[in-house]
Design brief:
The complex is a heterodimer of chains A (357) and B (522). Chain A is mostly helical and 357 residues long. In chain A, 72% of the residues lie in helices and 3% in strands. Chain A folds into 2 domains: 1-41 and 329-357, no CATH class; 46-326, ABC transporter involved in vitamin B12 uptake, BtuC (Orthogonal Bundle). Chain B has 522 residues and is an alpha/beta fold. Chain B folds into 3 domains: 7-242, Rossmann fold (3-Layer(aba) Sandwich), CATH 3.40.50.300; 260-338 and 424-521, P-loop containing nucleotide triphosphate hydrolases (Rossmann fold, 3-Layer(aba) Sandwich); 350-423, no CATH class. A 6-stranded mixed sheet of chain B has the order 6-7-8-3-9-10, with helices on both faces. In chain B, strands 16-19-20-13-21-22 form a 6-stranded mixed sheet, sandwiched between helices. Chain B has a 4-stranded antiparallel sheet with strand order 2-1-4-5, covered by helices on one side. Chain B is globular, with a radius of gyration of 24 Å. Classes of the chains: A mainly alpha (357), B alpha/beta (522). The interface between A and B is medium-sized, with 24 and 39 residues. Bound molecules: adenosine-5'-triphosphate and magnesium ion. Adenosine-5'-triphosphate (ATP) binds next to strand 2, helix 1 and helix 13 of chain B.
Chain lengths: 357, 522
């Protein structure tokens, strides 16, 4: 007997609805896989999904927390849409985020007495600069020495991690922290205000949404955005047209790193009001931002929406971890599965499947 | 519908094929009937629907309407694999070979019958097939070492290895040198003598007349007629295709050549493999003249033009444009100094996935009216694109369509339109009409002559000697990176040019003199 065979065939035509359908299909398969994981862990998947949704979106508190986590995801995610459009595979947003947090802490510690109308803008600026600097390293290594930016940007995450640890365990450890590896609390002027009784530091949220719109306009309405798209789609044509690859690669990385740096700044100056060990500042926002960007199909405006979804998933994941007594890595596993399926679903934009008997 | 066709003779019948794309109908009730053992030419203007119709037969596109019959049976072809099982193979213009693999590996690649790579048996079978159809082929050569013509033979072998009986070739001679094209036609004749069938898309009427048994002419998605080749003429075919007489009337006014626009002095350039490709080459092109470079492709033409445009580093010499030494200038500065460039490798000058509009502004996006400070003026982009589409008759559903969706000829037209509209003082064009229909060829030739009349210096690289002779004021022959000879085109001696293209007649040496100094230059 002959078994049916599955075949991939290259598409030469693609209907308009295809990208949406393949994305939806990818997400559905991801959900199915996650459901199986739940079942294996001895949890009823339907109950688990219901709890995740409930946790992330189903209550006022859950929604507040979701929006709080949406802020760093928008910032870092929008930056990555730009980098990926320009074919710079910046995998190290997490590290750029942490350096942004360090820079912000540095300013908050150095000028605690500045009035907040000076200090808060200064925090935004240095937060951006910190992330930008960290992302510039792989950019320069790539354009000058042809070192792959995937590796270098990722390795720099670990360096940033150690840098944060070094500071909070060492020179920056607070005087009044009862031995905890954290800095002293920022002065009131260095604390970004939040909506009352929530942790939503709205100035950062507003800046994040504005930046998403700006990056969208940059890509679609400016000469630089055009150069980025051309270079990302066809580096040969970019060279042919005399575009400056070094400039474009560097700019794209600086902007994406800077946005990730802002995300880190927002976490320390808007939520914790101090520098803490890396895992306390970010549960991997910089990595989740990669999913945000791909899920948004590299559209910065869509990234606002996908940030909200993934923010909810983070919150809901936390909720079930406690409620259903699941291992702490559960949310990471979700993220991994979703990323895998979202990227795999891209395949269906170029190929179609056929069953043969 | 009654079947009036002699079905017994026909190996392939396409009936009433309709294929629609968003905004265009590529095939609109096309019919085709191909007999076993014939070479059937498919002829038609750019965008007439030839490639689409063959993609339907090869299972890449699914027709919206119509029937396909193969060997007397009605079939539905879902995929190229289906087509191959029915004995139908297709060779596209762009080859899909793995550059670092050997010929044998490429031929066998993707066959599911084998678990282990049957190196020996495969090699033997490939040699046997090559022998049978008169192809010279080293089964162990790596693809990157092969010329365009040799790579095409690998594609043919790939199809034959899979037992293909009906072979579709889409503009197979467009990328070949005249010699390679002759060889290909010879191979095709051998194949039909062995009972195979060939469907052959081309724009070159002389090839149709020379090699085909019958010819079907397509216009606007429909098949107009099928003729016995012996009962027609090139001019009748051109007339059927375009719907008007094509006279090849060239408006070649006398133009007084002006000052030197391009001066190249003792230029040396390496190719991708690090071997010398251009050797001590000097030339100059004046305003208001077309300077042609004839030669078999692969003799340094590509390296020469890439060096002039700044896309390839040079190892020696000087390049001067409009009196300025640009030897060290980056590409952007050279574009600014007035160089327009249509490369032979079209895709290095286009962005396939981006819209026609985004492709049309690649050269002028940075300055007004398109570039407005740091912004792109979207209205100016639209206006610029629409005017090019109109002026150069680029056939596209709209300016937002990705340029890769256009027919081969229209992509070509769009590229030329962009470069010419920049009004360059030096226009470098490589193979300007390869892949263009006769009507479009006439249009493009006249466009280049208009550029010359405007006072541009045109450096024309062409494999097509007829084209080079028709357009050029002065002509140089290139061989192994050196100029073998240079003369006024009207005084050209065809026999000498032939010898020079083959490297048998060297510069500064009369034909009678000793040829032993080959390899060194004067
Ligand atoms: N995948 C596609 N999507 C949208 N339109 C297409 C697609 N393929 C072809 N077309 C359109 O169908 C028409 C016919 O194209 P086709 O490539 O068959 O022409 P052709 O006869 O091969 O022309 P040429 O000689 O220029 O290669 C063109 O208008 C082209 O733009
Ligand atoms: Mg075609």
């Amino acid at each position: 007997m002959k078994l049916p065979r599955i075949r991939f065939e290259k598409r030469l035509t693609s209907p308009r609805w295809l990208p949406v359908a393949s994305l939806a299909g990818g997400l559905a398969l991801a959900m199915l896989t996650i459901a199986i994981i739940f079942a294996v862990l001895g949890v009823n998947p339907l109950v688990a999904f219901q709890r995740i949704f409930q946790g992330g979106f189903g209550s006022a508190y859950g929604l507040q927390e979701t929006i709080t986590k949406t802020i760093p995801l928008i910032l870092a995610g929008v930056g990555l849409t730009l980098a990926f459009k320009g074919r710079m595979y910046n995998i190290g947003a997490e590290g750029q985020l942490l350096i942004g947090a360090i820079f912000a802490t540095g300013i908050a510690r150095a000028f605690p007495d500045w009035p907040s109308f000076l200090l808060i803008p200064a925090l935004f600026i240095v937060g951006f600069l910190g992330g930008a600097l960290w992302a510039a390293i792989p950019a320069v290594l790539k354009t000058r020495f042809r070192v792959d930016e995937v590796l270098t940007s990722l390795m720099l995450v670990y360096v940033a991690n150690e840098a944060v640890k070094f500071l909070v365990y060492g020179p920056w450890r607070g005087s009044d922290t009862r031995g905890f590896p954290i800095t002293d609390e920022f002065s009131a002027a260095a604390q970004i205000p939040s909506i009352k009784s929530t942790r939503i530091h709205y100035p950062t949220l507003i800046v994040a949404i504005l930046l998403a719109i700006l990056v969208y306009l940059l890509l679609t309405r400016t000469k630089l955005g055009y150069e980025i798209r051309v270079t990302g789609e066809n580096p040969d044509a970019s060279r042919y047209a005399g575009m400056d690859y070094q400039k474009i690669a560097l700019l794209v990385m600086i902007i994406s790193g800077g946005l990730a740096g802002l995300a880190g700044m927002g976490e320390v100056a808007g939520i914790h009001f101090r520098l803490r060990p890396p895992e306390a500042i970010s549960p991997g926002y910089g990595f989740t931002a990669i999913i945000v960007a791909w899920l948004a199909r590299l559209n910065p405006l869509a990234a606002i929406l996908t940030s909200f979804l993934l923010g909810g998933l983070l919150v809901g994941g936390d909720a079930i971890q406690i409620a259903l007594n699941l291992p702490a890595a559960t949310v990471q596993i979700f993220n991994g599965v979703i990323l895998l399926f979202v990227i795999a679903s891209e395949l269906f934009n170029q190929y179609k499947l056929r069953l043969e008997v | 519908m009654t079947s009036a066709l002699p079905e017994s003779q026909a190996t392939v019948i396409l009936r009433g094929i309709v294929k629609r794309f968003p905004g265009v109908t590529a095939n609109n009730g096309a019919n085709l009937e191909v007999r076993k053992g014939e070479i059937h030419a498919l002829l038609g203007e750019n965008g007439a629907g030839k490639t689409s119709l063959m993609n339907v037969l090869y299972g890449i596109y699914h027709p919206d309407e119509g029937e396909i019959w193969v060997n007397g049976q009605k079939v539905t072809i879902h995929s190229p694999q289906d087509a191959i099982r029915l004995g139908i193979g297709m060779i596209h213009q762009q080859y899909r070979l793995v550059q670092t693999h050997s010929v044998t590996e490429n031929v066998v690649l993707g066959l599911k019958e084998y678990f282990f790579f049957p190196e020996k048996a495969a090699r033997a079978h490939i040699l046997e097939l090559a022998e049978k159809y008169g192809m010279k082929m080293d089964p162990d050569a790596r693809i990157w070492q092969l010329s365009a013509g040799e790579q095409q033979r690998v594609e043919i072998l790939k199809a034959l290895y899979r037992g293909v009986k009906i072979l579709i070739m889409d503009e197979p001679t467009a990328m070949l040198t005249p010699g390679e094209a002759m060889e290909l036609l010879h191979i095709l004749r051998r194949m039909t003598a062995e009972g195979l069938t060939v469907i052959f898309i081309t724009h070159k009427l002389e090839e149709v007349v020379e090699v085909s048994n019958r010819v079907t002419v397509m216009r606007q998605g429909k098949s107009i007629t099928t003729l016995e080749t012996t009962k027609t003429t090139q001019s009748e075919l051109a007339q059927l295709m375009v719907g008007r007489d094509v006279l090849f009337h060239l408006d070649k006014k006398a133009v007084e050549a002006g000052a030197d626009v391009l001066k190249v002095e003792r230029l040396n350039v390496m190719n991708d493999k690090g071997l010398p490709a251009v050797v001590d080459l000097s030339l100059d092109v004046r305003a208001g003249e077309i300077f042609g470079i004839a030669g078999v492709s692969g003799n340094g033409q590509r390296e020469l033009v890439e060096a002039v445009t700044g896309l390839r580093p040079i190892s020696g010499g000087r390049i001067i444009v409009n009196g300025q030494d640009i030897t060290q200038s980056p590409p952007r500065a050279r574009i600014k100094s007035g160089i327009g460039f249509v490369p032979g490798e079209r895709w290095m000058a286009l962005i396939p996935g981006m819209s026609v509009a985004d492709n049309m502004i690649l050269k002028n996006y940075a300055r007004p009216p398109i570039g407005n400070g740091p912004l792109l003026d979207r209205e100016a982009v639209a206006a610029h694109t629409e005017s090019l589409i109109k002026e150069y008759a680029i056939s596209t559903p709209d300016r937002h369509t990705p340029i890769k969706r256009l027919s081969g000829g229209n992509i070509q037209r769009a590229l030329l339109a962009r470069e010419i509209s920049e009004k360059p003082s030096l226009l470098i064009v490589a193979q300007p009409t390869s892949g263009l229909d006769v009507g479009a060829t006439e249009t493009i030739w006249n466009l280049l002559l208009e550029e010359r009349a405007r006072g541009a210096a045109v450096l024309l690289i062409s494999d097509d000697l007829k084209e080079a002779l028709a357009l050029s004021d002065r002509l140089a022959v290139i061989f192994e990176g050196q100029i073998m000879g240079q003369f006024a085109a009207r005084e050209a001696n065809l026999e000498h040019i032939g010898l020079m293209m083959a490297g048998a007649l060297r510069p500064g040496l009369a034909a009678a003199k000793d040829n032993s100094t080959a390899g060194e230059s004067a």
